[in-house]
Amino acid sequence: MTTEGKSPILSLRNIAKSYGPIEVLHDIDLDIFAGEVVALLGENGAGKSTVSNIISGTILPTAGAMTWQGAEYAPANPRESIDSGVAMIHQELMLLPHLSVAENIFVGRYPMSGGRLDRKEMDRRAYQGLERLGLDISPRRLVKGLSTANQQLIEIAKALTLNARLLILDEPTAALGGAETKLLFKQIEKLKSEGVGIIYISHRLEEIKQIADRIVVFRDGAKVKEFETADIPVRTIVEAMVGRSLGRMFPEVPTPQEETVLEVRDLASPNGTFSGVNFAVRKGEIFGIAGLVGAGRTELVRAIAGADPISGGQVLMNGEEITPRSPREAIDRGIVLVPEDRKLQGVILDHTIGENIAYANFESVGTSGWINRGRMKEFTDQSIAKFGVKGQSHQRASEMSGGNQQKVVIAKWLTRDPKVVLLDEPTRGIDVGARSSIYDIIVGLAETGVAVIVVSSDLDEVLGVSNRIMVMSSGRQRGILDRSEANDVYVMELATAGHARSFDQEDLLTPVKQKLDLVFIPKVVHPWYDVVASGARKAVEELKEDGIDVSVTWDAPPKAEVEDHRRRIAAGIDRKPDGLAVACLDPASETPLLEQAIETGINVITFDTYCSERFNFVGNKADHEDGADLGHFLAERIDGSGKVAILAGSPTATNHKERIAGFKDAVAHYPEMEIVFEEPDNDNLETAVRLTESALAAHPDLAGIFACNASNPIGAARTVVDAGKSGAIAIVGMDDLQETMKFIETGTIAGVKAQRQWEIGYWAVKNLVAMNQNHTIPREHLTGSQLLTRERLADWWDAKRGDRELKEPDSGKRAQRAQA
User: Fold this and answer.
1) Secondary structure class of 223 (helix, strand, coil)
2) What backbone torsions phi and psi does residue 410 show, to the nearest 5 degrees?
3) pLDDT in tens, 254-284
4) Residues 6+ apart with CB under 8 A from 671
5) Phi and psi at residue 373, to the nearest 5°
6) Which residues contact 683 (CB under 8 A, 6 or more apart)?
7) How many helices (H) and strands (E) does the chain have?
8) Are 407 and 418 a contacting pair, CB within 8 Å?
9) Which of 171, 212, 543, 674 is most buried by a 10 A CB count?
């Protein structure tokens, strides 16, 4: 956007910030205009967060001045900035998970009437804020059931109800997948069009190129560059971020020996923070791990040290598998960790230097369960001298500088003569002099044959002290570089390029193979999967137009039987296709088969039902959220009162169970709603009809029905029509089959959450082709769902891209009469 002739809504002039003698920010000039996105970029510690915290009133500047909408602006705290119309949304969200959406939006300022909370007014105003962002979320929905992206948007909605005209978003996509990021960006564009200014802090350069109008680069507390985003190469931005040359503070790094000390094989974490990590460290080698915030580096070294669990893989020492399950096991094997946060995890601040060192070396200073004070002083005095700690053994750790605290942490572990030392951000927050001495310690360890792993966000540091460098991004290793080939620009490009970076469709032009053979195995023959197949066919057509010959074999079982499904997966693997897409029926027993497919070189994607973090996934994972949304939606339709029946789908399907759990969580908010009937129908239309008849016979005053999967809303609707109660009983359910949509059009079904299965098929094909071409694709391509009601059918028809003419629905009994 052009800002020529416009006045900024926010101006900073000569802003500086010092902590004692250390200046962390100096002479910052910055203008922000209405309706633009300004990205603040820089390495960790460059100053961008300090600037944002000054603007939001979290910290006060040491010098300089600000103006807001032309008037003097000097917020003393965040409340003053919010009252002025400036709101900051932090990377760590500040929502209360056990409160509703509306309660979170208005926490601390609830609308009152007659001395009591006016819940209807609160819900009404919350709904207005949600509607402004295009969110189909009930204000009464519990926040804990929302996706991370929707929680992020709730924070934005909260700010908008405060009439914020400037939003500061700090790493807003750090925990989001590709689909969630697109949702956030869509809402940011909407806010821009309404004249809201946005300051956007992120390390993800590809995202910055998509969303920002201007880029401001910080380095060492100074604003060093400003770009208009259009046509600026990523490389130019990276060079501005890392523009410092390596200093002479790094000692010469020794050549490692040939012997391998530590080896990591295919290590993975249970929560997906890292996976598929492989590397080996030699005796006397300094192995650097680089990456940005959220790359999984800290979680990786904590797992190697036994502090965090792993879900797969091995840790070996000297060729022996030793995967530690606790820090004690790791320490006993000779692996020690100097953690990232020294104050929380490294030292006990209220205890002395001597006590901190002694606690990790009890066998050297204690006897019979007691510490020998004389022996402790002698031992710790030696450690203090050896590692250059400036202090006395009787001095409390809280009285020391950050650099000396870090030396105490290092000393307490290195006195154990470890074989492997893991250093996580060893120089964070300490001065240059202390840094230099810690580098000497690191190199000294390597010279004695210790294998050293250094995690650092400082590119100069990781380049200056390492023999080799592994770059991580989004929990994956993106490359291992020798010291001779590594440079700051190359490392930064690897660290940023892998962040949830999806392929560009225009790049799908030169397949590794001229003809690609893909096999799709859904759970069962079903109209829902017919729509998935139509999306897959569309993707194949587009690819063929681009000269990529793709064939898809669709192998759908006639019945949902686990053994038959497993046989079809095995047969698909035997075909040796280029890609295999499976809707897992039984994840536990089918995971080993899919792992076997990967081992034989077949690219694997799971779709519809999430199976394992081992495989790429395309589909909707928000089943609990969908169920809760439908629970609140049903409550609105029946005024929060009445008897409700549940058609429970398959009792073994995890996604069905999650939807029902979400639905029940929502209903629990309405004391006058009662679930009086719950039976599984195994997603069988005839069974759904029979069960609905039973529910109506047992409860003639039934107010609502929740049908948790694709066929049962149709069965419920047919029965309700035949009973003459269309519109009198509110039916909510899942998915957008053709007959379902006709029942919505006639008002028999109040609404459904549709899972966009057409997109699932389309992107499963595109992603498999991208994997074949060695593109980086999102680990999870979340297609999401949308609430469809009678009022929203026009949007649904547009999204389907198809013919609007559908068959009229027939109830079961009318169909029988027609056949007779």
Assistant:
1) strand
2) -65, -45
3) 999 999 999 999 898 887 788 888 999 999 9
4) none
5) -60, -40
6) 526, 649, 650, 709, 710, 711, 712
7) 28, 36
8) no
9) 212
- Is residue 372 within 8 A of residue 422, CB to CB? The reply is no
Burial class (CB in 10 A: 0-12, 13-18, 19+), 581: buried
- Of 497, 523, 556, which one is at a domain's C-terminal end? 497
**Helix/strand/coil (H/E/C) assignment for every residue in 132-174:** HCCCCCCCCCEHHHCCHHHHHHHHHHHHHHCCCCEEEEECCCC
Q: Quick check: 429 and 437 in contact, CB under 8 A?
A: no
Question: Which pLDDT value is given to residue 466?
Answer: 95
What is the amino acid identity at position 576?
K
CB-CB contact of 192 with 186 (8 Å): no
Chain center to CA of 483: 32
**Angle (nearest 5°) at CA 372 between 369 and 373:** 135
Residues 363 and 395 in one domain: yes
Q: Residue 601: give its domain's CATH number.
A: 3.40.50.2300
Dig out the tokens for 323 from the structure. 């995967």
- In the numeric block, the tokens 């530590």 are attached to 262
Does 183 lie in the same domain as 53? yes
Angular region, 537: left φ>0, alpha ψ -120 to 50, beta rest: alpha
What would the DSSP string read from start to end of 770-815?
HHHTT----SEEE---EEEEGGGHHHHHHHHTS----PPP--HHHH
Mark whether 434 and 546 lie in a shared domain: no
pLDDT for 54 equals 96
Neighbours of 504 (CB within 10 A): 9
Helix (H) or strand (E) holding 604: strand 603-607
Q: Which residues contact 378 (CB under 8 A, 6 or more apart)?
A: none
Domain interval for residue 644: 623-754+783-809
Q: What is the pLDDT of residues 772-800, one digit of tens each?
A: 876 666 677 777 777 888 877 765 555 44
Q: How many domains does the chain divide into? A: 4
- Amino acid occupying residue 52: S
Number of Cβ within 10 Å of residue 668's Cβ equals 12
Q: Are residues 279 and 390 in the same domain?
A: yes
Orientation of helix 812-819 relative to helix 712-722, angle to 10°: 80
Residues 636-689 have pLDDT tens digits of: 899 899 999 999 988 877 788 889 998 998 898 888 999 999 999 887 889 999
Among 619, 635, 661, where does a domain finish? 619
CA distance 469 to 32: 38
Structural tokens at position 514:
């001229």
Q: Are strands 476-482 and 468-473 parallel, antiparallel or unpaired?
A: antiparallel
State how far the Cα of 181 lies from the Cα of 232, in Å rounded to an integer.
22
H helix runs in 369-452, sequence order: 373-386, 402-414, 432-447
Strands of 616-619's sheet in order across? 549-554, 515-521, 579-582, 603-607, 616-619, 780-782
All residues at 6 or more sequence positions from 241 whose CB lies less than 8 Å from its CB, including other chains: 41, 42, 43, 46, 217, 219, 492
Cβ neighbors of 705 (< 8 A, separation 6 or more) are 644, 645, 646, 647, 692, 695, 716, 720, 729, 730, 731, 732, 733
Taking alpha carbons only, the member of 810, 768, 278 closest to residue 553 is 768
Strand partners, 312: 268
Say if residue 141 is in the same domain as residue 177.
Answer: yes
In a domain, 777, yes or no: no
| Same domain membership, residue 229 and residue 303 | no
Note the pLDDT of residue 198: 95
**Does 164 share its domain with 267?**
no
Q: Binning pLDDT at 50, 70 and 90, where does residue 620 land?
A: confident
d(Cα 791, Cα 589) in Å, to the nearest integer? 43
Query: Is 267:296 a contact under the CB 8 Å cutoff?
Result: no
